[in-house]
Amino acid sequence: MFTEDTATALLDEETHDAINIDRTKGDFTFPERNKFDAGWGLSSATVDYICDVKQDPDWVREFRHKALAVFESKPTPTNWATKDLENIDYDKIRFYLSDGEKPKRSWADVPADVLETFERLGIPQQERAFLAGVEAQFDSEAAYSNVKEELSKQGVIFVTSAHGLKEHEEIFRPWFGKVIPTGDNKYSALNSAVFSGGSFIYIPKGVKLKQPLQAYFRINSESFGQFERTLIIADEGSEVMYMEGCTAPKFETATLHSAVVELVALKGAKIQYVTVQNWSSNVFNLVTKRGLAMEDAEVRWIDCNIGSRLTMKYPGVIMKGERARGEVISIALANTGQHQDTGAKMIHAANNTTSNVVSKSISVGQGRATYRGQVHIPKHLKGCKNNTECDALLINSHSRTDTYPAITVKGNRHATQHEASVSQVSEEMLFYMRQRGLNEGQAMSLAVNGFINDLVREFPMEYSVELKRLIDLEMEGSVG
Amino acid sequence: MTTTLPAWFTTRQELAKARYESIPDPKRNDVLWRFSNIKQLDFSNLSGEAKSPDHTELIARSTGLVKPAAKFVFLNDEVIHSQSSLPENVICLSLADALVSYPDLVEAHFMKQETHLGSAKYSALHEASVKNGLFVHVPDNTEIVGSIEVHHWISDKGTVFPHSLIVTGKSAKVRVIDIFRSADEISPGLVIAYNDISAGPNSAIDYIAIQALNEVSRLIAIKETTTARDARSKTFILNTGSAWARNESMSRLEGPGAHSDMLSVSIPHLEQEYDQRTFQHHVSEGAYSNLLYKNTLYGRSKTVFSGLISVDENAHHTDAYQTCRNLLMTDDCEANSMPGLEINADQVKCSHGSTSAQISDDEIFYLQARGIDPVQARQLIARGYSIDAVKRLENEDAENLVLSFIDSKFSRIL
Fold it and tell me: Number of folded domains in chain A?
């Protein structure tokens, strides 16, 4: 059998210690200690309660109520999406919880049990090793927030979105809800009604961050939906990489996670948004992510989905300025009981814009991986280019994979290409590796890591090492 | 007439009528009608009796192959001419006659599969309204040399429901060519056609549909192909005519070694819209399917391609390929592609590809340097691009017939 020891032996000790995050340690909960609790179910009273607790300005309260009406009026999109969505019982979800304490500035102020969770997730080590700033989210509010002093001096804003909308309204408000309007889909409307937590980041003109910004998200209260809202604005010529990673303790009833992430890359700016999603396999993860790229700007989504029961996530880029560029790099791993429904949306809205989508999915056991894509090139534009590649790997005979792209091209001055393939790990390949002394599990793991290797390289170093290890763990027991 | 029809048929027509009435109209947000122009499904301008033009003239215009193995000419679903030099053991006659003479044989193969690409309502309407068409049954170990050629004419504001039912026994072989045309260039007509193609073990069926209706008519054509063990089916669709055409082509691979080719060439111009949906259904393991659709778009025309490869749970060792290519010739044309895969088995080789692009300036320059003017050069490249799919018919007579319709379309675009 393929054990953890053999998997980790491949890494040198030091690297391993630095990045070691034992995901099984996520299977625990601490006693809940919530000062504010909006109760079960969703109504306009829930929305008012959230507004009161968070002391939202009037415009936010109005925004939330409008969104609630939109959410209630929109049907569940089961005409194209999985029927599993009907299993979400909104009356059995608590939409807001908080310990009511202000975000902390130093580790010493963070409550001990929360700190222990973070310890187990390995945040302090990473903080020391790599991070420019940490925005760790414990339930709906950030329990810890820290931006390195040098960044503050450069004028970088890295705060919770609640803080952002109050203290930086002049920057926050013009873009909030503009990239993803409330009515975009049912789940973006839900998020707009009950959002709490998430980050607001502003990078001033010409500032290029050398180190990535990072936030960890956790769900810790049973049946509790998390609705964070993130807005990143990169001003002209600036560059930023943001990393979002998720773990969640296992619960007995399904929880709902519905985030909205909006990126704005102004002229010549560059935003990379990296996600490693590893929710426990009872979480519905219905996320709307979209970036706006102005002239010469670039938005890249680097997305890896390993956990959750159902993930529906189609990061998009609207290329609004000339020569803007959009890219989605996506890895999905669906194990038994999981449905990874991911994809990409590329909307070309200016001349000479280019987009690239590379998606790789792996289906293990009875897992199901789906790619849905949209590429839209309207009339009267010229020189737009899109390249889409999606490759699927099936491990077992009950694994399932689907691909549903939609490409619209109007006019004759563009080029698009789409290619997809489905394959399995060949017997010869496994045989070759076993000849060289690997057991079947190791051989399979190596083959799968090889399949996604060129994408894993796109991730920041510590993520790619962690990713490889996560895949080793997921592949355990998948064969033999 | 109803008295002579078999009871199973009249019952099925009644049930189909009820089904047609109970199925709601497709809506704009139906996934199976994504990017479609739903307005084209309003058929209210078509009420009116079909008039019967001069038969002799239409028969004279019904030219195709030099020496067809058999030839049928229909006008508004009535046979106005037929000739045959087929072997005696081959059954090849109008569906109306076959229902009377071979009711059991027809029943065994008539509309056996469910339509699930969006037109279930129109499939029901066809089933409720079908009166005629062609029935071909080729018994075991019989190979037909040459092709069966069928001309379908439609006149005035008529609605027709032509049905082609083609069945082969073991190791049999046949090629059928359907040609749909309008009697004049100004009367809007509607064709709701259905093709039932059933290839028995180790047999081969080639089916070619040429759609060259006038540009105010509309067409819905539903095709069901089933291919048995070691059999080979090849279907080809050419779209040059009609204001709007919707093709739904389903191909079921039911035995190991089954081989299905699905080919299409569409050349829309002006405001023409072609909406094509395909389904490659691998029911059995060890089967092969390959799809190639090529569109050349002019004017403000629009195409929709939605293809799905579906591999059932136990259909291991499947080879399935799907390619849709769009050549965009003007600024205002629009190509939509939705190539899809649904895989439930392993040891599967599947791929799909879709591209949209224009002719590069280099290619035009190359031909100009050899004395060919740019307009001609573009046409030449477009023709060559279409021929790629036509060549896969692997029969010179059939290829030339298809090419004559392609050339006639290009000559109208110039």
Answer: 1
Q: Residue A472 and residue A452: Cα distance in Å, rounded?
A: 12
Locate the chain A residue with the closest alpha carbon to B353. A419
Work out the pLDDT band at A134, boundaries 50, 70, 90.
very low
pLDDT tens-digit series, residues A32-75: 556 667 677 888 989 998 898 888 899 999 999 999 999 999 99
Asked if the model's pLDDT at residue A220 lies above 80, the reply is: no
Q: What is the mean pLDDT of chain A?
A: 79
Planar angle of CA A235, A239, A245, nearest 5 degrees: 110
Residues 370-429 of A with CB under 8 A from B: 379-380, 392, 394-424
CA–CA gap between residue B316 and residue A397 (Å, rounded): 8
- Whether residue A479 lies within 8 A of chain B, CB to CB, comes out as no
The answer to whether B336 contacts A416, with C-beta atoms less than 8 Å apart, is: no
Phi, psi (degrees; rounded to nearest 5) at B374:
-55, -40
For residues A293 and A319, is the Cβ–Cβ distance under 8 A?
Answer: yes
Most B CBs within 10 Å: which of A346, A363, A412, as the mutation test of the B interface?
Answer: A412
**Would the CB atoms of B332 and A410 count as touching at under 8 Å?**
yes
- Band (A95; pLDDT cuts 50, 70, 90): confident
Out of A404, A411, A420, the one facing B332 most closely (by C-beta) is A411
Q: Which helix (H) or strand (E) holds A64?
A: helix A58-73
Cβ within 8 Å, pair B328-A407: no
Q: Scanning every residue of chain A, which has its alpha carbon at the shortest distance from the alpha carbon of B337? A: A407
List, in sequence order, the alpha helices (H) in A228-320.
none
* Percentage of residues of chain B with pLDDT beyond 70: 98
Average the pLDDT over A367-378 and give the result.
92
- How far, CA to CA in Å, does A157 sit from each of A137, A148, A161, A180, A402? 17, 11, 11, 21, 41
- Of the pLDDT bands very low, low, confident and very high (cuts 50, 70, 90), residue A23 is very low
d(CA A23, CA A12): 19
**What is the C-alpha to C-alpha distance for residues A197 and A144, in angstroms, rounded to an integer?**
12
A45 part of a folded domain: no
Type and span of the H or E element at A347: strand A339-348
Distance CA A419, CA B352 (A): 6
Interface predicted TM-score of the whole assembly (ipTM), two decimals: 0.77
The reported pLDDT for the residue numbered A130 is: 36
What is the span of the domain harbouring residue A265? 4-33+104-475
Contacts of A124 (CB under 8 A, 6+ apart): A107, A118
Place of tokens 């690239």: A356
> What is the Cα–Cα distance from A286 to A276, expressed in whole angstroms?
15
CB atoms within 10 A of CB A389: 15
Place of tokens 């439609």: B154
Other beta carbons within 10 Å of A199: 28
As given in the structure block, the two tokens for residue A425 are 């790990």
Give the pLDDT band (50/70/90) at residue A2: very low
Residues of chain A found within 8 Å of residue B282, distances taken between Cβ atoms = none
Structural domain includes residue A91: no
DSSP letter for A447, please: H
- Residues (pLDDT < 50) of chain B are 1-2
d(Cα B184, Cα B182) in Å, to the nearest integer?
5
Q: Does residue A175 register a pLDDT over 50?
A: yes
pTM of this structure: 0.83
A148 pLDDT tier (thresholds 50, 70, 90): low
Hey, of A78, A409, A414, A424, which one would you mutate to test binding to chain B, going by the most B CBs within 10 A of its CB?
A409
Q: Which residues contact A370 (CB under 8 A, 6 or more apart)?
A: A339, A340, A341, A342, A343, A361, A401, A402, A403, A404
- Specify the pLDDT at position A222: 42
Distance of CA B84 to the CA centre of its chain: 23
The span from the CA of A194 to the CA of A190, in Å, is: 6
